[in-house]
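Our preliminary data section would be incomplete without showing what the modeling component actually yields. Below, a chain of 499 amino acids is followed by its predicted structure, encoded as C-alpha cells that our downstream tools consume directly.
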Amino acid sequence: MIWQLAWRNVTDKPWRALLLLLGYGLGVAVMITLLAVGEAMVSQAREEKLVGGGDITVLPDGIDLEVLKTGGLGGMFFSVPNARFVYRQVLSSPRHEALVQAVAPQLDNKLLYLTTASGVELPVRATGELPDATRDVGAAPVLLAGEWTNDDVDNRWASPTPAELRHDLDHFHLPGNEVANRDSWGEWHYFNVLSDDATRWAFISFIVGGDVTQGEWGGQVLVTLHTVGQPARRYSASVPSDSVRFSTADADLHIGSASVVVQEDGTYAVRARVRDEQRGTPLDIDFVVKPEPYANFPGASLNSGPFTSGYAVPALRATATGFLCRQPANACERYENARAYHDHNWGVWRGVTWEWGAARAGSLGLLFGRVQPPDSLQSAAPLFVYVTDSLGFVSLFRPATVEYEDGGEVRVAGRTLQVPSRGVMEDVRGGDSLRVELLVDDATATDTRQGLIDRGESEQARALRRPYFVQMQGRVRITMRVRGVRYEHTGTGFFETYR
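Predicted structure:
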C-alpha cells in the first residue's frame, strides 16, 4: 500500500518528486563529505608526524594551524624567519634543557619550482629536515637502503663552531638592483670598549662606503676616544677600493693594513693604525674581542622598495683585551677583559635616522633600537627591546618610544645643542612588563652634514630635519617581569639618537 501511494505520487507530480529526490541526494552527499573531512582532521590532529614530529610545533605569529592542516595557502609557503635562532636560543637553549629533550625543525612536502639547465620550470614537492634531529624526536623515516644522517651543512646550521657562527651572522652584503642612492651604500663593523671605571671608552668603526658593485667606493677606519668631561678625539685612515677586502661569505675585513679577522675560537682580532684628524699623530689599536655565548642578536633587514637597512649583533656582551697606543710618546693604555660590544650594519643611509642603545646590567644584556627610513611622513615604528642573559634570549618588548628629557648641553659646529640627560622606555605584554631608565653621564654630538661619523654616515649631504647625531654614555636601570620572574638590575650602556 505504501509503495503504491509513493509511486502514484511520483507519477502524478514527477517534477516535484525529482526535485525532492535531488535535494535529498545533495544533502546526503554534503553530509558524507563533511564527515570525511572531520574524520581526516581528527586523524591528522592525532598524527604528529604529519606536522613534523615531536610534541610542540612552532608557527609564525598569525599562521592558522587549521589552514596548514588542510593544505591552504599558508601551508604552501610556511616558513619560520630566523629559524636557527628559534632552534638554538628558544627551543634547544640551556634554559629549557630540563623540559625539552629533543627539537627537530622540519618543512614537510612543500611546493617548489625547479628550473632545469634548459630553462624548463618544473613543480616539485620537497621536504627539508635535519636527519639526526628528526631521529632524536622519533620521526625518522624507515630506510630501505643507504644512510640518512647530518652532513656538514646540517651540522653548521644546527651546531656551528664559534667561528662559523660569527661568519654567518657577520658577513658582508651587496646592494640589490632595486636599491636607490647606491652611492650612499655603507657597511661596517662597529666596536665599543669601556674602561673598568667607566670614565674612558673608544668607538671603533671599520667602514666600507659607496657603490661597491661599480663606481667609486673605498674604506675607512674611524676611532674616537672619549673621556668623561673632555672633548672627544678623532682618528681616521682612508684607503681606495683596491686596498679593501671584504666578502659576502665571511666576516673578515681588511682596509689597507687595518683588519678585523675572526679567529678559530670565534674571537675578533681588531688591529689598525689611524691618525689624529687635527694633529696628525698616530694611534695604534690592537684588541681581541671575545663574545659571550648566546649573547647575540640574529639580525634583521628592513627592505622598503629602494630602501634597505640591515643590522646584526654578533656580540651583545663581550670582553676586550689589548691596548691603545698614542704616538710618538708611545703612551699605551692596556685593557684586560674590558667590557665590549660589537655590531654590524649595512644599507643605504641618505636621509635615515635611528634610535639605538646597548647596555649591560647584572646578568642582563639589553639592546634597543628603531630605524626611521628617509620618508619622514611615515609614522615611526615601535622600538624593539631585546633582552638576553647568560642562557641566551629572555624576552622581546616593543615600547612605543623612548621618552628623553633634554637636560644637557653640548657644543657642536659653533652652537649649543640641547641633548638628553635622561630617558625612559616602558612596555607591557600580557603578564610581562619592562621599564628601562637611561641616565646620561656624557654626550657628544656630530653634525651629519659635515662628513663621516662613527656609524658609517657617508659624506653625502642628507638635509635631515634633525641633523645632529648624538652619542651618549651612561647608566641604565632595568625593572622587568618575565614569566613570573622579576628582574631588577643596574649597569652601564651606550645610546644614540638625533636632534
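The longest strand covers residues 307-326. DSSP finds eight helices and 25 strands in the chain. Preliminary results of this kind motivate Aim 1 of the renewal.
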